[in-house]
Amino acid sequence: MDFESYNLIFSLGRKVLDGGDISCDEALALTELEDCDAPILLGIANKIRYYFTGNQIDTCEIINARSGGCTENCKFCAQSDHYITEAPCYSLLSEDQILEAANKAEADGAFRFCIVTSGLGMNGDSDFEQIIRAIRLVGQKTSLNQCCSLGTLRDEHVEALKDAGITRYHHNLETSQNFFKEICTTHTYGERISTIKKVKAAGLQVCSGGIIGMGESWQERIEMAFLLKELDVDSIPINILNPVKGTALENQDRLKPMDILKTFAVYRLILPDKIIRFAGGREQNLGELMPLGLLSGINGMLIGNYLTTSGRGAAKDIETLAGLGFNPCTPIEKL
């Protein structure tokens, strides 16, 4: 019997547990494992997750506070004006509506609440001041940690958000720098990196990850992980493409469930002490195997619904976490 693959998994796992870093080539070697070896990789990733962050899991609930009408042509997005989809389109919700959603998130068991708006960013956006007021209101009326996802920012936006009570800012890279041009041509990858650096420089945490299954190679998927490591991103949401009718990726083939799980595990070895978050598309792509995702190195979860699609419901998510022995709360000190 050939134990080469076992030796690879255990040697790299020990390297990470001893405080070392794996290389890009070593990460790519793990992606080449046969499916029969994948459960061992998941187990090692789960051990690394437990060693660095324990059994706590960062739970977050979002609100789509402004939907549709986006000028950008991201091929995956149901809210882009470049595609005809059934996604809702509406202007910014009122402060009271956002507070109502925050109260629900807190009751659902979320420890973080994220206000999300469609669009490229806040430069010249007339809704920004109302968003700031909503953030302050949520901070006054709930005990939630607050995050927001408003697109690209200037320095003055970052400072205003920090002053209002935001502790973490979400801005996905979406994919690797090399593959990004295949996904979006109306803005640059550099703009995304610039916003992340502005947020980090202001002393805020960053939530940034992407979507797997858009046609990228393993090499490109791993390159994104190493860039997230270089940028010292705190929370990494991994979405799995759920092809939306009307978008440019509506006919994209779905990833194999085992490749999804291997992605989570390899990301954990690359980013051992970060929050790796179970995000959108997990229900449609993993089906009954979804709980295995939580045993592959995951220590964060988006609970409840997503931007334009429904999840299983927060209660079911919390039930699954409890059944696996997780403690739904932030794995890092509350800011």
From TrEMBL:
One of its GO terms (biological process) is biotin biosynthetic process. Its cofactor is [2Fe-2S] cluster; [4Fe-4S] cluster. It holds the Pfam family BATS. It catalyses: (4R,5S)-dethiobiotin + (sulfur carrier)-SH + 2 reduced [2Fe-2S]-[ferredoxin] + 2 S-adenosyl-L-methionine = (sulfur carrier)-H + biotin + 2 5'-deoxyadenosine + 2 L-methionine + 2 oxidized [2Fe-2S]-[ferredoxin]. It comes from the Bacteria. [2Fe-2S] cluster binds at residues 114, 147, 207, 277. InterPro entries: Aldolase_TIM (IPR013785), BATS_dom (IPR010722), Biotin_synth/BioAB (IPR002684), Biotin_synthase (IPR024177), Elp3/MiaA/NifB-like_rSAM (IPR006638), rSAM (IPR007197), rSAM_sf (IPR058240). Residues 52-282 form the Radical SAM core domain. Keywords: 2Fe-2S, 4Fe-4S, Biotin biosynthesis, Iron, Iron-sulfur, Metal-binding, S-adenosyl-L-methionine, Transferase. GO terms for molecular function: 2 iron, 2 sulfur cluster binding; 4 iron, 4 sulfur cluster binding; biotin synthase activity; iron ion binding. Homodimer. Catalyzes the conversion of dethiobiotin (DTB) to biotin by the insertion of a sulfur atom into dethiobiotin via a radical-based mechanism. Belongs to the radical SAM superfamily. Biotin synthase family. This is Biotin synthase.
